[in-house]
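The methods section describes the discrete structure representation at length, but only in general terms. Each protein is reduced to its one-letter sequence and a matching series of backbone shape codes. I believe one specimen quoted in the main text would settle the matter. An entry of this sort, consisting of the sequence and the corresponding backbone structure tokens, reads as follows.
***
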Amino acid sequence: MACSNFWRFLLSTSVSPSASRYTVVAMALHWLLGLAIVGIFVLGAYMADLPFSPSRLKLYNWHKWAGITFLMLTVLRLLWRVTHRPPALPVAVADAMPAWQTRAYHATHHLLYLLFFMVPLIGWAYSSAAGFPVVLFGQIPLPDFVGPDKALAELIKPLHELFAWGLAGLVALHVAAALKHHWIDRDGLLLRMMPGRS
């Protein structure tokens, strides 16, 4: 009961819901990938400074499996977006946004998609260059993204971390913008991506 009241408060009623909503598949992929980003990032940050041990190797494998799964879901999401046009910004919202905010809105989405691909692909390349093939779920060996090359691995490793932090920053910006629209602007924009609401 308390949990129900909490969600009712978060999605409070004094907003103007937009008629245009995302499809159920788009919503599912959005929230699934959002949760995956948080989980993969937290796992990556935690395991990075662990001493070498069987536990660390196990976490690295989980991280790689999650990254490859994330990459496959991103391909699916992009295919869905290309074949199912997302709803345009409501006219009232678009008119109320300053030009710089509209440009930032589009730029953030494009950068998010770019990093959705770059972060796992660079991680895969690092693993291959370091001589550690990716065996998905411990059962499906994937081809090496690049050949074994220790010097290349050392070059790639900081890029993977840098882009992962960049992705985390963009996700935080995306969340902050969504909450601003919901709680400050009260324009109903967030509700278009929430299941079970008209």
